[in-house]
Amino acid sequence: MSRALVKFVRVSPTKARLIAREVQGMNAELALASLDFMPNKAAGIISKAIASAVANGSYEPEEVEVLSCRVDKAAVMKRWRPRARGSASRILKPTSHILVEVGKAGAQEAPKTAPKKETKPVKAKVEAETAKKAPVKKAAPKVKTEAAPAKEKAEIKKAVAPKAKSTAKKAEATTEEKPTKAPAKKATPKAKKTDKKDA
Q1: What is the 8-class DSSP label of residue 146?
Q2: Which one of 6, 20, 42, 73 has the fewest CB atoms closer than 10 angstroms to its CB?
């Protein structure tokens, strides 16, 4: 792959890019032939840049193609024009840099990627650090099986049975402690005293 760079060309980059897009990916010989018949100023400049790039790589135009044709913005020259009432208006004269790369078909280099580093040791270190920092997790409650409810019922019955016995014993003790009272006798009405005097 070879290249040619033309700097500070007196062409607007927007106008030169229209021609550069047409040429990109073309065979160099075909590109040079088509540019000769274009009326634009940028066509002649880009044609010379392509011929220079082919010569720089010591290729023949028919065996290479235009890999890329790039037009970058360069410095802008500022001029002025007199206007009404003694004022002046600004004139901008843009320039551009044209870069052409030429090479054999499929010779464009793929972008180099850095080799991947092994991340396993790093992950192990991070996991170890997080294990130290992380609070101890409580054990998850055991899932109850079908046999568990039967066991629970048996345990409840055992717990309830002693309570029933203890309540029965308390009732007996209270009955023994309290003396049984005899039923109260009804008072018989006393006979009225008769006056002896009356008798």
Answers
A1: S
A2: 73
pLDDT tens, 68-102? 999 999 999 999 999 999 999 999 999 999 999 99
Q: Would you state the pLDDT for residue 171?
A: 58
Please list, residue by residue across 69-104, b when 16 or more beta carbons sit within 10 angstroms of its beta carbon and e when fewer do.
bebeebeeeeeeeeeeeeeeeeeeebbbbbbbbbbe
CA angle 188, 190, 195 (to 5 degrees): 170
Give all domains of the chain, ordered by start, each with its CATH number: 2-103 (3.90.470.10)
Structure tokens at 155: 């345990």
Q: Which residue type occupies 189?
A: P
pLDDT of 199: 46
Residues 66 and 50: beta-carbon distance below 8 Å: yes
Q: Give pLDDT < 70 ranges for the chain.
A: 107-128, 130-153, 157-199
Query: By three-state DSSP, how is residue 86 classified?
Result: helix
Integer CA distances (angstroms), 138 to 57, 134, 141, 178, in order: 73, 12, 9, 56
